[in-house]
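Question (not urgent): is this output format expected?
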Amino acid sequence: MEEECAQEGGLRVKKWCAALAVVLLAAGLAACGNGSPSSGGGKNTASGGDAEKLADQKCSACHGDQLQGNVGPNLQHIGSKFSEKQILNVIENGKGDMPKGLLKGDDAQKVAKWLSKKK
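Got this back:
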């Protein structure tokens, strides 16, 4: 009897962990972009192209609403670690789990410049 309870409890934990993993994976994929190419000549533009608004729309789901890190790393002081050119390279080409092309063209440049000032 005791062994059956232990097996049943272990099975519940495994099912719960599997369900949690699926939910987290789905949330991560949904949060990090829709995967469709942008229209408008390679630009994803948010009202006026403001870098902070762009970052909020395209980066905060993975990097946090204050850039404190979440699925992706903390970006609050990224400018003290990487140059604007290096940041732009990561935005355009991706790195690790970050997909490439979430921002393109002028929008990518604006966000890279804005992030490079975060020291």
